[in-house]
């Protein structure tokens, strides 16, 4: 946002030239807002001239410069009406149309038609124009919590406190029109109670004409990157940039009945001032008449009711709209405007009538011929100032410096806070009355008042004291185990770590044709495509596969992060998970990937059991090539092949994915004890079986392990499948036999082997 120092000092009744601007900028940056830049600007008005259009065609415009008594031809422009006056730049014998950049604007465009009287054509039009200025560029992010600083008057209040001036009272810059207050309905205003609007004010102005822009105001608007159009519209923009409150002009003859402030109806359409037509929903607030919407409230007006060349009467409106509702509408419609940017900050609820009074003052001061209604109509309750009690002891404690009662009262009074000193048995306190322009969200608790005092007391005046931190030992085992999981994934499994967003990219979900169930939705989404919190990390990792698979044949990604779910409508559950994918363009087998993942669990010291899914497969897995992971009686997660209909969206090939509860892995930790190896020789035996594909390898392993107490370990050697075997496969397992008390004889080994055969045959296997 740009601020004009000359404009700002209008509210102080002082000459800005009397102050050191660089020093003022440094102090303003230290106390109020982050200044991105500040530069002096000046204008050589002797190079500018007023030109009258005396003839035109589709290719060129003939102009006359009365001051030089010369005529010139310039390129055609759409707004060059006969007898209209324009600003031109003349250097030696070269003449061109004046641009906004010539007036120090940071945007392209030509200076519009100007209102010039015949008596000014010889050069008197330059009288009263500002010769120089300073333009300050403010970082908008530093103003998010300060709705009062979205206009020149708010910054003028801060400067007044810094340099010891007084802010001009509103009575000197506003017309003192009577204000008639109504609860819900005024003569031409109907405020719906369920709309996103709490206050709405308006006034009718008749016998108006569409006058060209006045150069003084067009010049000021250009310096802060606003474009002049005509006098009545310019004044709405001027008021918004002056006191920070947006307003709008309706053509009164285009309004059928009253102005109705309501929520839009689903499917309603409105043609906007920028030429676009938008479809509205019930979440959008509109200003309508009794038949149709006229504007998207707080965002942009409609073209049908806009001020035109032939407009004879207008209705001026200024309102207060709900900040969150305006932000959501602007984001959904992709129409973030200067108006919506201000309403999003929670403006002063009582400022809308001030905006109208300021506009009427501009009409009077500029001599605009019109007839104004005798009173402003205001619908909706006034906001009441609230009070905060601040103990002096708390102020000194939080500030970290000694400050006197008089200093506190002086600082707060300069910022227009009301201060009453209270002395009691508990010590000195201040009852601070917060003005409505600071009370919407900025100043709510005692610490907010302390911050106000601190920034004008001076951060440099606070003694530098090193903070003291008492260090106590605490259990770092969880941190170390989490670090170990990352190290094992990165080194033992040759995986690369990724970090995805905690929100679903709904454009990617649409490509996957996946709609998450139980995903918590944000009340105020950062954008229309990022509104739901992740319930699984797999979609994000698949998106990483899609991004990188073009140049890589093999990818292995893992991520440690949080996911959220909603077991009930009012409960949100947060969980730490570890997710990963093994992707091969040439293909990867389930058992190859399973062996890799088991390396991780073994290294972490966990015995993980692979079981058939009880409640069905997760959304990302193939139905018959997925397993549940269990530690004891607790389900850890899932691992299996990625469903082809999802993977083909990302890349060609095959992928194996896993997602398990990281919190469980980190919390279950058993101190390992040294186990004396057996003294007697162990025997390894292999068994090859031909079995149905639905029989899980884990079931075969479990049956063999339980068949004889002397079997110490069972593990997979090989799985072989052929197209000729549609429902069967060959599985080879190895089991280790050992007796703790003696060396096994051949007969005892045969006994164990027969027990194994007896255990697996009932499962329908054929021993090969």
Write the layout of secondary structure elements.
Blueprint: E1 2-4, H1 5-9, H2 21-31, E2 35-42, E3 48-56, E4 60-65, E5 70-75, E6 85-91, E7 94-97, E8 132-138, H3 152-163, E9 179-182, E10 185-186, E11 189-191, E12 197-206, H4 215-223, H5 231-243, E13 248-251, E14 259-263, E15 269-271, E16 277-279, E17 285-288, E18 293-296, E19 300-301, E20 313-321, H6 323-333, H7 338-343, H8 351-366, E21 371-372, E22 376-379, E23 386-391, H9 392-399, H10 405-414, E24 418-424, E25 427-434, H11 446-457, H12 477-492, E26 496-497, H13 506-512, H14 538-548, E27 554-568, E28 571-584, H15 590-603, E29 609-611, E30 621-631, E31 634-642, H16 644-650, E32 654-661, H17 662-667, E33 683-692, H18 697-707, E34 711-720, E35 728-737, H19 746-760, E36 766-767
Parallel strand pairs: 9-22, 11-14, 26-27
Antiparallel strand pairs: 1-8, 2-8, 3-4, 3-6, 4-5, 6-7, 10-11, 12-20, 12-21, 12-22, 13-20, 14-17, 15-16, 17-18, 18-19, 23-25, 24-25, 27-28, 28-32, 29-30, 30-31, 31-32, 33-35, 33-36, 34-35
Helix pairs in contact: 4-5, 5-8, 10-11, 14-16, 18-19
């Amino acid at each position: 946002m740009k601020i004009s120092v000359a404009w700002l000092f209008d509210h102080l009744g002082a000459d800005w030239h009397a102050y050191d601007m660089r020093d003022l900028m440094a102090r303003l940056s230290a106390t109020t807002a982050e200044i991105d830049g500040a530069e002096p600007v000046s204008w050589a008005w002797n190079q500018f001239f007023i030109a009258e259009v005396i003839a035109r065609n589709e290719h060129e415009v003939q102009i006359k410069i009365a001051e030089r008594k010369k005529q010139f031809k310039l390129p055609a422009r759409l707004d060059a009406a006969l007898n209209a006056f324009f600003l031109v730049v003349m250097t030696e014998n070269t003449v061109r149309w004046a641009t906004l950049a010539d007036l120090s604007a940071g945007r392209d465009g030509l200076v519009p038609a100007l209102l010039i009287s015949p008596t000014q054509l010889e050069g008197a039009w330059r009288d009263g124009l500002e010769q120089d200025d300073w333009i300050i560029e403010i970082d908008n992010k530093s103003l998010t919590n300060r709705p009062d600083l979205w206009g020149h008057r708010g910054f003028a209040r801060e400067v007044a406190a810094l340099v010891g001036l007084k802010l001009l009272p509103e009575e000197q810059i506003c017309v003192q029109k009577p204000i008639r207050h109504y609860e819900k309905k005024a003569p031409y205003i109907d405020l719906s109670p369920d709309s996103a609007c709490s206050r709405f004010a308006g006034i009718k102005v008749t016998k108006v004409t569409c006058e060209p822009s006045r150069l003084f105001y067009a010049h000021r608007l250009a310096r802060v990157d606003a474009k002049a159009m005509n006098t009545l519209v310019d004044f709405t923009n001027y008021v918004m940039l002056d006191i920070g409150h947006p307003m709008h002009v309706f053509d009164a003859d285009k309004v059928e009945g009253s102005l109705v402030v309501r929520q839009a109806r689903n499917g309603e359409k409105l043609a906007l001032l920028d030429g676009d037509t938008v479809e509205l929903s019930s979440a959008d607030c509109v200003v309508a008449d009794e038949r149709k919407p006229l504007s998207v409230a707080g965002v942009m007006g409609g073209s049908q009711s806009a001020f035109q060349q032939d407009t004879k009467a207008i209705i001026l409106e200024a309102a207060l709209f709900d900040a969150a509702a305006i932000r959501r509408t602007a984001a959904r419609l992709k129409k973030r405007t200067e108006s919506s940017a201000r309403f999003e900050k929670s403006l002063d609820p009582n400022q809308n009538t001030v905006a109208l009074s300021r506009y009427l003052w501009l009409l009077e001061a500029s001599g605009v011929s019109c007839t104004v209604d005798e009173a402003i109509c205001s619908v909706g309750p006034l906001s009441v100032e609230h009070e905060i009690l601040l103990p002096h002891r708390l102020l000194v404690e939080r500030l970290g410096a000694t400050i006197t009662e008089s200093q506190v009262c002086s600082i707060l009074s300069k910022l227009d806070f009301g201060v009453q000193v209270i002395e009691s048995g508990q010590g000195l306190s201040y009852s601070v009355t917060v003005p409505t322009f600071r009370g919407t969200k900025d100043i709510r608790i005692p610490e907010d008042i302390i911050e106000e005092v601190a920034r004008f007391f001076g951060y440099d005046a606070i003694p530098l004291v090193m903070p003291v931190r008492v260090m106590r030992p605490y259990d770092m085992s969880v941190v170390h185990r989490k670090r170990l999981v990352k190290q094992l994934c990165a080194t033992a499994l040759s995986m690369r770590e990724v970090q995805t967003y905690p929100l679903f990219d709904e454009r990617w979900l649409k490509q996957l044709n996946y709609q998450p169930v139980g995903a918590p939705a944000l009340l105020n989404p950062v954008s229309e495509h990022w509104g739901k919190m992740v319930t699984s990390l797999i979609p994000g990792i698949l998106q990483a596969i899609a991004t990188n698979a073009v140049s890589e044949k093999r990818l292995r990604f893992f991520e440690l992060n949080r996911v959220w779910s909603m077991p009930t409508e009012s409960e949100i559950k947060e969980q730490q998970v570890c997710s990963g994918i093994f992707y091969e363009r040439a293909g990867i087998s389930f058992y190859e990937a399973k062996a890799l993942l088991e390396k991780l669990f073994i290294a972490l010291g966990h015995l993980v059991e692979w079981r058939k899914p009880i409640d069905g497969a997760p959304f990302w897995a193939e139905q018959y090539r997925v397993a549940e992971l269990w530690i004891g009686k607790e389900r850890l997660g899932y691992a299996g092949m990625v469903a082809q209909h999802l993977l083909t969206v990302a890349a060609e090939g095959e992928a194996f994915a896993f997602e398990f509860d990281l919190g469980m892995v980190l919390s279950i930790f058993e101190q390992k004890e040294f186990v004396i190896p057996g003294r007697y020789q162990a025997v390894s035996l292999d068994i090859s079986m031909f079995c149905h594909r639905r029989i899980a390898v884990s079931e075969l392993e479990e049956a063999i392990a339980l068949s004889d107490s002397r079997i110490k370990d069972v593990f997979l050697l090989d799985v072989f499948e052929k197209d000729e075997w549609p429902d069967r496969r060959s599985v080879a397992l190895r089991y280790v036999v050992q007796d703790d008390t003696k060396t096994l004889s051949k007969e005892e080994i045969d006994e164990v082997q027969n027990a194994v055969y007896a255990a697996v045959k009932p499962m329908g296997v054929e021993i090969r």
